[in-house]
Every structure is written in structure tokens, then in C-alpha cells.
Amino acid sequence: MFNGQNYGRLCGIISKFTTNRIKCRFFNIQSDKSQLIKKVSSNRKQWEQLRKESRDDTSDFDNISFEKTIAHSGFGKSQNSKSKHGFKYLGLLQTVTNSTSDEKLFSLLADISKFIDEFTPYELIDIGYFLTRINRPGCSQVVEPILHRFFSMPERFSCLNGVYFHRLLRTMFIFQDVTYRVWVYEIAQLVSAKHAHLLMRDVQLVIDDLSLFYDAAAQGALNQLEDSVLSRVQELELYRLPLLIHALGRCGYNSINVAKAVHRVYTSYKGHKDYYSSHLIGLLLKGYASFHFNPGTEFLDDVWSNVKDNLKNVEFKYLSWIGESFLKLRYFPNISVILDELISKHSILSHLEFTDFISDCWSIQTHILSLEFKNYIVPGSVWQNSSYSDEGFSEMNPNSLSQENNSKETVDKLYGYYKRLITLINSEMPGKIYESTPPYRSTQFELMTRLLDIYPNPRDFRIILPLRKYDTIYPVLSLPKSLDTTTKGDISYLFTQMDHFHSSNFFGPNSNHEQTQPEYNTIKSVDPPINNVSGSSSGLKELNPILKQYIHSVFFRTPALAPRGLRLLIQGLARIHFEQREESEIDKDLIPNMKVKYHKRPLSRSIVREVYRKLACFNNDDLIVSLFGMIVLNMFEFQLSKQLLSELIRIWVHQKNQNSLLDEQLQMISLFFLTLERNNPSVYSSLDVESIKKLC
């Protein structure tokens, strides 16, 4: 006869029996001897083999015990439920503070390690995420087996909703030293294929996480998210819109349609209490500049009128972002107020604000050169003049080169700030170099080489590269075709000396703009010299000491550079004619002597090695620009470069078969191999020429 009291007692006994780990460990896990870190399968066949091996290892148990183990951990157990140990340790982790002693923290981490093989996928992600919040010594040693355990579980993706996608990606970013890239790719591919069910705020968080990796294979998923962003961006709250566009711009993804959609939604929030918050405006404008999107003077005037009154209370980094963005967008009416505030506090600014100072100098230099050589500028090389029209989106044409926007007084004021900033950079930046991480040093070095006051005779691209992730550094000029004898395949077709800027009244070697005729209300146009269209460098001079210091600062740290950092380093080296300096006596101590004694061209070798190691992580735009720079730097004479090119051909052939290469990229790939064939015939002939022809 059914007895409710006895039934309740029986349920209690069963529950206690199956959750008591010490007495009933036999039923909770298969063996005390089982490996904590298991092999990770990369395909279905490997997974089946590993599964079979794991079952063979339990042959010393009787069949009944094995079946009980499978029943306990199989489909009958809800994956979103928290185990006894999961609840306990998640609670304890959230009580850890900065005042928690190391001994107590290590004891907690040791206890967590004992139960890693019993946590559910949910608990593994949660524990890893809360360890990122602590991020103290010992945490990464626990996160490593947690990640291995998670990615060895066949049911690992059953728990990946939007929040857990974000937590897992953030854990892998914070603890990159114990993260395999293939794990990031796996998550990125899953998100790109299945994201329609995610809340838009979760999509924004995932985009932010993926953009932090600076890895093309991970960021490739962002292309698949564009349609969702365009159709659902209005679901985002006000404060998430700047984060979205800044994250996309940071990783070089800059589809103009996304910028227009974000701007349309952001302006619809006008009247919100945080609409003019300095941190949101700074991020938003920084993202617009990365997207080459100019929101128009009406929007910028409105922003300034509501930000200026609180300028003294704005954090320096946000104020610096706003100032840098105003200059990039060619919005000058009130830039002096921001620059005066920052310059007056230069002694307490960090290397981050000084990096923005370098960018400010480049923006001013580029704008003044564009004004001086306006009659020769190739259409499309000044993106700030682009106009945008769309349904419900008024057409805007900022016309940054118009006379009414560039009076002589305005230009002279800009040049005055340029000189003040250059003085600060030369005097204080050397002491801040080693405050930066290697990727930041690479960024600062490349920005430095753009400035004609730092390096007066740069070499740069003479054509506009049709790549959306590349900024045109100097105004591209259209000079008489009768003087241009270059043909496709020549180095001189790609690169040219920027000697025509020597005739500038502001940046030329004999410039003295104060003596220009005072009756001019606008800047006087300049005719470039016509006797040196694509000549080579004439008589290199010793490098500016600050550039030498940057080269030393990255020499031993090239392994720490991501693909974008490598591209920037290569661009900067190409600009300063590094291939001529590396083995010459022009610059003493350019390379540490300890390496020069044993290796020929050690820095170039290390760059080729790192490009080869990280080939799969490059996006195609960064890769193409890097390869063009490597040609002019003579880096393909090393033995390793042949392996690099062979692997590169296989990657590009696969991408072409998958229709993932853009027409503009194929055009540049064809130009690269044509240039390689003409300038390095021995290297070209050793490659798979038939595959190259299929590409081109």
C-alpha cells in the first residue's frame, strides 16, 4: 500500500545518496584516476575515437556501475541546473575582495580545482567569468583546466545563450595566455551562424568581445552580423550605441551603412538625460572617425554647445577623444578650447593622451597639405568631404576644403597648435614609451613616421588602395602623366618619395609661413615640383632619436604584436627606408649589437617569422598592406618567406573558392604577385605559379 511518509523518506535517501560526493564518488564520476584535462577533439571522427578510449579506460568497473554513471551525467540531468558544488563555489567567489588574503584565495582555488570535472557547462563558464573579476595570481592556473574541461564536453554548446557567449569570450580574452585560438574561432563561427535568437544587447556584447582579439578569423563573424545590426540596431539602449560603433571601428570593420544606422538611432534619443554625456560622445565620434563617417556640422555644433559648459569636469581621456575626433572630422571652430585645456595639463597626462597628440598633429598636417595642394588632389583621397544620402537621412557635404571654412587665421592657429604639440611630443614622449604595451608602441611609432617634422623625407603609397581597413596617410596628388613613367609591377608604381611636399609653406625644409603675404585671407595654394614624381630617396640622414628609441622598444617584443601591430610596424619601417638603414652606418646603434653580431638583418627576420606565425590571424586588408611593405623592405630574400608565401597562396585559393575575397582584394592580390614576379623572380618561380594564375 502506498505510504506518502515512506515515499518522502525514500526520495530523501536517494537524493542524499546521489549528491554525497565523498561516500558516493563512484556514481558521480567514472574514476578517481580519470584525467582532469582531457584531449579536445577537432572533428566528429576524433570525438568518437576519444569517446571510445574514455569508455575503454573504465573496463575495471562493473557494467552496473558504468550504466549508473552514464545515467547520472547524461541527458536526464538538466544542463542549466546548478550542482551542489557549483552553487557553493560561485557564492564563495563573489565574496572575494581586494582585502581577501592570498592564503585564503589559494585555498579556495585549490578546492575549486578538485571539483572541475563535476561542474556543468554553465558552472564552468560562470566560475571562469568570476575569476576574471578577481584576476589575481593563481586564477589563470585554475581557468586553464576549466577551459579545457568545457571544450572537451560534447554538450558544451547547449548552454550558450547571449550572456554565456559574452562570459566565455570575456574569460578567454582576459586569460589569453591559457586560451587556444581555435576555441575563439569555434565560438565566433557559432555566433555568426546562430544569433537571431539573441537579444540585441547580447549581440553588442559579443561584438565588443570579438573586436578585442584583433584576429581576422574571429572578427570574420562580424560580417555575418551586419544584417542583424542594420535591422535591429533600434533595439539597443542609448549607451550601447557608442560601444557598438567603437568596437566595430576598432577592429577595422567599417561598413558605412552601419555608421549611418547607428547615427540615425542615436539622434532619435535626443532629449535623453545622457545624450550629451562626454564618455558617450567621445566613443561615438571616435567610432565615426574609424568608419570614415562625417555626421555633419549641424550635429557637431549641437554636441559642442552642450559639452563646452562642463569641459573642466570631463575626464582627460574623453576630452582627448573628442578633440582627436574633431580634428579627424575637420571640425575646427572650437578645437582651441579643448587643446588649450589638454596642453595646460600635459604634465599629468598619460601615454594614451600623448598618442592622441601625435594623431592630432597628423590630422592638422594632412589638412593643411590638402589645402595647399588642393588643385592636385585625387578625388576620393579626402574622405571628410564625402556626402551621404539615404531615405530619411538628409544629405550632408561638409566640404572641409572650402575657403569659408579655412581662413588664414584658422589655418595659422592650427599650425600653432601643431608646433606646440610637436614640442611636447619630442620632450616628453621618450619617457613614456615603456609605459605602453608593445602593440601601442607599434601604433605610436607608425604615427610618428607620418609627421614631416619627425621624418622629413617619407616614402609612402602613391596610389589609393581600395581597402576599407586602410587610411590614406598623405594627400594623393595627380601629377602630369607625361612625367609618370611607372608601370604596374614596378616598386615605383606602389611607392613614391613624398618630396613634393618640400614646397609646402608650412612643412617644407625652408618653410616660413609667417612671411606669407598678409593680404591673403585664405591659405595660398602651392604647385608641387615636377622633377621628382617617383624618384628614390636622395641621401638619407640620421634618424630622429625618438624613432630609434621606438625601434629598440619593439625589437625584442615582436612576438607580442598582433597582425594589426605588425602591419603598422612594417608601414612605419617602409616609410623611413629601413632596408637601407638596417645594414648601413647611417644610424649607429639602430639595432642592439648583441643580435647584429650573430644575425644578418635580425629585426627583418623576426618580422617575417611573426607574419608567418600569425598568418591565419590576419585580415586580408592588413595582410595585403603588410606584403606590399615587405616587398619594398626586401624581406622576401629570407628562406622562411618562401614558406610564408606558399601557405599564403593556399589560404587565398581556399578563400576564393569560398567566395570570401572581395573584388578589390583580388585586384590588390594580383598587383602583389605581379610586383613580386618583376622584383623577386627567383622567389616567384619557386611558388605554385598555377595556383597564382587562378587567383589573378
Task: Write structural notes for this entry.
The chain is mostly helical and 696 residues long. Among the domains are: 70 residues, no CATH class; 202 residues, no CATH class. Helices cover 55% and strands 2% of the residues. It is built from 34 helices and 4 strands. The strands form 2 sheets. It has a two-stranded antiparallel ribbon with strand order 1-2. It has a two-stranded antiparallel ribbon with strand order 3-4. Strand 1 and strand 2 form a beta hairpin. Helix 17 packs parallel to helix 19 and helix 19 runs antiparallel to helix 20. It is globular. The termini are far apart. About 8% of the residues have low confidence.
Layout of secondary structure:
Elements: H1 4-19, H2 25-28, H3 44-56, H4 63-73, H5 84-93, H6 102-114, H7 121-134, H8 139-151, H9 162-174, H10 181-193, H11 200-211, H12 216-219, H13 221-224, H14 226-232, H15 240-250, H16 256-268, H17 278-290, H18 297-307, H19 316-328, H20 335-344, H21 351-372, E1 388-390, E2 393-396, H22 408-428, H23 438-450, E3 459-461, H24 491-494, E4 495-497, H25 545-555, H26 563-575, H27 578-581, H28 593-596, H29 602-613, H30 620-632, H31 639-657, H32 663-679, H33 681-685, H34 689-695
Antiparallel strand pairs: 1-2, 3-4
Task: For the structure shown, list the relevant keywords.
two-stranded antiparallel ribbon; two-stranded antiparallel sheet; globular
